[in-house]
C-alpha cells in the first residue's frame, strides 16, 4: 500500500517543515491555508507563522483556502522522485512548463510568500515519495 | 599581505543612445578579449569564477560589466520617469558602447540567458568584427517568462525574483553556489529584472537573423544545461540547426546559470567552447 499521498506521508512532511532551520528564519509571515491536490485527493494545510499546524483531508466548503496546487499523482511522483527529471525538479519549472501542474485561487497571496512557499515545496521534494 | 584576487574593477562613462551612462567594468587576464554578458536582473559578479581561472586568464582578457540599472552601474538621468525596459536595439547599443570604449579588438562575446540570446544578434550584425560567440543558454525566441508579479507593490520583488530564478539551477548544483546567485538576484532594483525579462520574453525574436551568421568568419559555440526550463536544450538545438557550422553541446546535470551555479563542472565545457571559437 502506498504511503504517498496519504495522511502518514503528509504528517512526515509537516514534521520536516516544522523542524526546518530555514523556515525558522523566513516563515514568520506565512500564515494561511493552502491546498495540495494529488489527483483526486485534496488536502488543506493550515500554516501559522511558517509551521503546519493542521492538515485537513477532503476539506469541506467551509474550509477557506486562498490558493493551492493541483496536479495528477504521476506529476507529483516525478517532482518527488530522488532524481527528478528536467522540468519536474522545481515548482516554478512545473508552473511554467508542465501544464497539468496548476496553481489555483489567489496567486498574489502565494507570491507574496514566494520564498517561504518555495522552501516548503523544496522540503516536500526532499521528503520524497518513498513508496512510490 | 592581503590575498587579493586578480580581478580589477573600474568605472567608465559611455554614451548610449544619446545618454551618458556610468558603468562598472571588471576584468582579469591578458590575451584575446572575452566580453561576458550577465543574465537578466543580475550583474557581472556571475563571472567571478571565470575571471579567477588562471588557465583562462593566461589566454584571455576576460571583461565583464554591469548593465545600466544593474549591480554597481547607475541608471541614466531621469530614470524615475520611465520604466526600465530593455529592448533588442538598446541592448545592442549598450554592448557596442562598452566594447568600443574598452578598445576590444575582435573579441569573443559570451553571454548567458538574455546575454546568451543577444550574442546571437551580435554574431549576426558584427560577424566581421568579432572572433565569435559563446552562447550560454541561448535561444532565438523565448516566450513565457514575463509576468506582472515581478514588479508589484504588494510583493517583495527581490525575494520573488530570486526564488523564481532559483529553480533554474540544476538540483544537483552545489547549494552554496545556487544561493550565491539567489543573493545577487535579490539585490536587483525594483522592476529591473522585469524590464530585462520583457526584452527576453516579449521583444526578442532572432529566428531570421541567425540564419545570416557565417561561421567561417564568426565561430559559434552553444552550451545549454540539461535542467534549464527557461531556455531548454531543445530551444538551443533549434538555434544550432539554423546556424550551419555551429557547435552545440548539452551540459549534463547543469541548469541555467553554469558559470555561477557549478563552475567546476562547467569549466571543461567552457574550455572546449573557447578552444573552438578562438581557433
Strand order of the largest sheet of chain A: 3-2-1-4-5
What is the mean pLDDT of chain A?
94
The ordered H/E elements of chain A are HHEEEEHHEHH
Q: Tell me about the largest β-sheet of chain B.
A: 8 strands, mixed
* The CATH H-level homologous superfamily of chain A: SCP2 sterol-binding domain
Shape of chain A: globular
CATH superfamily of chain B: Alpha/Beta hydrolase fold, catalytic domain
Beta content of chain A comes to: 15-25%
The CATH architecture category of chain B equals 3-Layer(aba) Sandwich
- Biggest interchain interface, per-side counts: A-B, 18 and 23 residues
Taking pLDDT < 50 over at least 5 consecutive residues as the criterion, the unreliable ranges of chain B are none
- Number of distinct beta strands of chain A: 5
> Which structural class do you get from the secondary structure elements of chain A?
alpha+beta
CATH class category label of chain B? Alpha Beta
Organism (chain A): Undibacter mobilis
Protein name (chain A): SCP-2 sterol transfer family protein
InterPro entries (chain B): AB_hydrolase_1 (IPR000073), AB_hydrolase_fold (IPR029058), AB_hydrolase_sf (IPR050266)
Organism (chain B): Undibacter mobilis
3D architecture notes:
The complex is a heterodimer of chains A (132) and B (279). Chain A has 132 residues and is α+β, with helices and mostly antiparallel strands. Chain A has one domain (7-124): SCP2 sterol-binding domain (Nonspecific Lipid-transfer Protein, Chain A, 2-Layer Sandwich), CATH 3.30.1050. Chain A has six helices and five strands. In chain A, a hairpin with a 2-residue loop joins strand 2 and strand 3 (51-57). The radius of gyration of chain A is 14 Å and the shape is globular. Chain B is an alpha/beta fold and 279 residues long. Chain B has a single domain (8-278), classed as 3-Layer(aba) Sandwich (Rossmann fold), CATH 3.40.50. Chain B is built from ten helices and eight strands. Chain B has an eight-stranded mixed sheet, sandwiched between helices. In chain B, strand 5 (108-112), helix 4 and strand 6 form a beta-alpha-beta unit. The mean pLDDT of chain B is 97. Classes of the chains: A alpha+beta (132), B alpha/beta (279). The interface between A and B is medium-sized, with 18 and 23 residues.
